[in-house]
Automatic annotation (TrEMBL):
Name of the protein described by the UniProt record: DNAation factor subunit beta isoform X1
Keywords assigned by UniProt, alphabetized: Apoptosis
PROSITE patterns found in the cross-reference section: CIDE_N
Domain CIDE-N: 4-80
SMART domains: CAD
Keyword Transmembrane: no
Superkingdom assignment: Eukaryota
Length: 333
């Protein structure tokens, strides 16, 4: 059975004009795009306009409709939206010469690890709406959203809260797999976790650029998010970054980024919690340790979809933290 058709916006490397193209597979989209832009099918490929990530069939299936793509012919490259720096600069005034010189130095140094980040900062200075917060100042950003969202940060908080709520739903739904004699204790732990999540508003602050405490948000004050790399690495080799506050497309594309559990939620943390409740034998389960693993940045990494490894992480919970030491009471003689 063929996949349903989805529409995408496709442009060539050298032009700004975008074409609507519908396809159910990456191969089909590539074929239609090559015919439209008169490029040879052999050697051509599609990548994200935003950051230049080349599409695979699996990546293609995860993309939301209307994502902007660039069709590259044989031998062509695309550095992401930074490839449009020259076009953007042509429309700027004032400090144009200084900005051009800075961009040239960065682009000349292919091995500079901060090149992509600095180019992102450059685009930030050229984007007039990147700091707009309210709906009245950037109405296009809110297209397709419910009318209750009046500013960008409120929607971004909701976006993060929705992810955390889905994790809580998975933990609650696992109760059917818990041993019958332990289900009541498991449910009590769920209730404790839920109360704590409600008290912190489901950690929506992680995506809120207005959050005053830098340590509890994943973005800069301007709204830039950086990929934290695969679970087995301390950095992103491709230096992926995005600002979902900047425009509607970036907001939509950000939904494909993952809050990845380093110690896996489904394979490890939740089953370990169920086992701990079952075999507690009078001991007190340290539910707050499991809460940290499931819902906080202690065990969550924000990763670009290309850096999200779905293989077994082969990491386990800390056995010394599963149970809490009970406080001893001393008799006074």
């Amino acid at each position: 059975m063929s996949a349903p058709l989805r529409a995408f916006r496709v442009r060539g490397r050298g032009g700004a004009q975008k074409f609507g193209v519908a396809a159910g597979s990456l191969r089909g989209l590539l074929r239609k795009g090559c015919r439209l832009l008169q490029l040879p099918l052999a050697g051509s490929r599609l990548c994200l306009y935003e950051d230049g990530t080349e599409l695979t069939e699996g990546f293609f299936r995860a993309l939301p409709p209307q994502t902007e793509l660039v069709l590259l012919g044989p031998g062509e490259t695309w550095r992401g939206c930074f490839s449009d720096v020259g076009r953007l600069l042509a429309a700027s005034h004032g400090q144009r010469d200084a900005v051009v010189e800075a961009a040239r130095r960065l682009l000349a140094d292919e091995r500079a690890p901060a090149r992509q980040k600095l180019l992102v900062d450059l685009l930030h200075t050229l984007d007039e709406n990147i700091l707009a917060e309210d709906k009245q100042d950037d109405g296009k950003w809110f297209e397709g959203l419910e009318s209750r969202f009046k500013n960008k940060s409120s929607y971004m908080r909701y976006s993060c809260e929705s992810r955390i709520r889905s994790y809580m739903k998975e933990v609650s739904g696992f109760i059917s797999n818990v041993h019958p004699t332990a289900r009541e204790a498991y449910k009590r732990i769920i209730d404790l976790m839920l109360d704590k999540l409600k008290s912190v508003k489901y950690n929506g602050c992680y995506f809120d650029r207005r959050e005053e405490e830098e340590a509890v948000r994943l973005c800069t004050a301007e709204g830039w998010f950086s990929c934290q790399g695969p679970f087995d690495s301390d950095y992103c080799p491709s230096k992926h970054s995005i600002n979902p506050y900047s425009n509607r497309e970036s907001r939509i594309l950000f939904s494909t980024w993952n809050l990845d559990h380093i110690i896996e939620k489904k394979r490890t943390v939740v089953p370990e919690l169920a086992e701990a409740v079952k075999t507690r034998d009078g001991r007190e389960v340290n539910w707050e340790y499991f809460y940290q693993l499931l819902f906080t940045l202690d065990n969550l990494k924000l990763v670009h979809i290309a850096c999200h490894k779905k293989t077994n992480h082969n990491l386990s919970c800390d056995k010394t933290k599963i149970y809490r030491k009970r406080k001893q009471t001393h008799k006074i003689s």
